[in-house]
Amino acid sequence: MCLAIPGKIVELDAENANLALVDVVGVRRKVDLGLLQDAPPVPGDWVLIHVGFAMSKISEADAADQMRTLTMLGETAAAMEEVRGYGLEEDPPEDYGKGWKQ
Amino acid sequence: MKYVDEFRSPELISKAGEEIRKLADPKQHYRIMEVCGGHTHAIYRFGLKDLLPENVELIHGPGCPVCVLPMGRIDDGLALAAEPNFIFAAFGDMMRVPGTHGSPLEYKARGMDVRIVYSPSDALKLARNNPEKHVMFFAIGFETTAPSTALTLVRAKAEGLRNFSVFCNHVTIIPAIRAILDSPDMRLDGFVGPGHVSTVIGCRPYDWIAKDEGKPVVVSGFEPLDILQSIVMLLRQLRNGEAKVENQYKRVVPWEGNSAALRAMAEVFELRPYFEWRGLGFISQSALKIRASYAEWDSEQRFIVPGVRVTDPKAAQCGEVLKGVLKPAQCKLFGRECTPEQPVGALMVSSEGSCAAYYNYEHRKPVTIASSMAV
Q1: Chain B contact for A71, CB < 8 A?
Q2: Contact present, B123 and B117 (Cβ < 8 Å)
Q3: Which residue of A has its CA nearest to B44?
Q4: Nearest neighbour of A88 by CB, restricted to B122, B221, B254
Q5: Quick check: B179 and B21 in contact, CB under 8 A?
Q6: Which residues in chain A are contacts of B222 at CB distance < 8 A?
Q7: Which residues of B touch A76 (CB under 8 A)?
Q8: Are B353 and B64 in contact, with CB atoms under 8 Å apart?
Q9: What is the domain partition of chain A in residue ranges?
Q10: A43 vs chain B: nearest CA distance in angstroms?
Q11: Which residues of B are less than 8 Å from A75 in CB distance?
């Protein structure tokens, strides 16, 4: 929960201006950009993500630093589990289908 | 040996260690509190204590959100979710935290609909996907996570999603620091300031600690070198008789914080008159409640909350450990009745809790940076 996960903005969501597709070491998930609305990031920018929300813009070098910090702290697995979990992707059979509101 | 290869600059680390020994006056005993649980975790994992002279003592602070949450709040949240057609959603960190009658995970085993989410916006998504159920997001955390909960509530209101609410346990770090400084049995010389909380609140909110209390604060990153450099900066201030707020983590923390995040929090939250913290007791204006304009999405305004107050298991000394009065291993239950596998107290659950950190890295004595460097 307190992990700061570095990711690169791949593209902004065409339908929802608050969302962007972010790449975290090859795993791509949508994150919310609403907390960076004063200086919205653009594709190619690096951000630090907390619980599915981009919280600060950082440089590419700082992103690499942060990834190494997570590795050193033994938190890489937890960080990747968190990123994979964004959007409830981990358990679609349970969460999708029933009561799905289009 | 394992960890040493992963360090950015082992030589800089030894230099920082030397610098600390040079700066620390052998006639003095320095007590420095690292406020943030992430720092506590890093300090134990890297065995940084072993690089410090004996008269530079690190005291672990209250900055682990899971650890400071009183058990009564967990009981309250679980009591609400016992209603039919409720989904209890929370971060994974919460799942093994014991309530009086078990953890959320144990309630799940007994049939409660308990879901792990990694983002508050996914709790919102659960509500969208389950319109016949009520999704309650059990929100915890300091200012690092509070803005995300706030923005999720803004989105829920904009969408008019009525089957969603937040059981808000968000706390703020400054009043906790004040409570610790006011505590008569606590003497501290300076603070390693939290890194990620400060990306949101910036560095100004610590000004009073320097100006009014005369104690230096250095906002710090999480790498071993960051933490050691911050200790160097603190000792340098102490040697020069200074007390100011410095930012060691400039690469991530802007001095002014994140104003959009602060605005989101101000839109949705107001201060509670008081809130109970495990170990620290009731602290005034130390937690956030949801404003009346968002009452519809506030579990506490929308439903009847039992308001449970329970004391921690008597034998467990979580409170003393949280205040830094006792070291984890001085608790009677440590490593015997209370382990990360079978936690009695919350400090043993989260990897940021000082008991879990101590148990995993100190108690089991892995190869640390200091011992590997000596080889």
Answers
A1: yes
A2: yes
A3: A73
A4: B122
A5: no
A6: 69, 73
A7: none
A8: yes
A9: 5-88
A10: 19
A11: 351
* Of residues B219, B230, B197, B188, the one with CA closest to residue B323: B188
Half-sphere exposure of A46 (CA within 13 A, CB side): 17
Q: Are A37 and B261 in contact (CB < 8 Å)? A: no
Q: Report pLDDT digits (tens) over A51-85.
A: 999 999 999 999 998 998 899 888 899 999 999 99
Rounded Cα gap, residues B154 and A67, in angstroms: 31
Residue B299's SS3 state is helix
Structure tokens at B118: 């990694």
Domain annotation for chain B: domains and CATH numbers:
3-61+184-247 (3.40.50.11750)
Handedness of CA B58, B142, B68, B98 (dihedral sign): negative
ipTM score for this prediction: 0.90
CATH class of A5-88: mainly beta
Smallest Cβ distance to B151: which of A34, A66, A88? A34
Q: What is the pTM (predicted TM-score) of this model?
A: 0.91
Burial of B331 (C-beta count, 10 Å sphere; 0-12/13-18/19+) = buried
Q: pLDDT tens digits for chain B (375 residues)?
A: 234 344 567 888 889 999 999 999 999 999 999 999 999 999 998 899 899 999 999 999 989 999 999 999 999 999 999 999 999 999 999 999 999 999 999 999 999 999 999 999 999 999 999 999 999 999 999 999 999 999 999 999 999 999 999 999 999 999 999 998 998 878 899 999 999 999 999 999 999 999 999 999 999 999 999 999 999 999 999 999 999 999 999 999 999 999 999 999 999 999 999 999 988 889 999 999 999 999 999 999 999 998 888 877 777 888 888 877 888 999 999 999 999 888 888 888 888 889 999 998 877 655 455 555 543
| A100 contacts B148? CB cut-off 8 A | no
What are the φ/ψ torsions at residue B187 (nearest 5 degrees)?
-115, 120
Q: Tell me which residue has tokens 């700061």.
A: A4
CA distance B177 to A42: 37
- ∠ CA B358-B50-B228, nearest 5°, is 95
Q: Is B118 on the interface with A (CB under 8 A)?
A: yes
User: Are the beta carbons of B234 and B32 closer than 8 angstroms?
Assistant: yes
**Does A67 lie at the interface with B, CB-CB under 8 angstroms?**
no
Q: Write the DSSP symbol of residue A56.
A: E
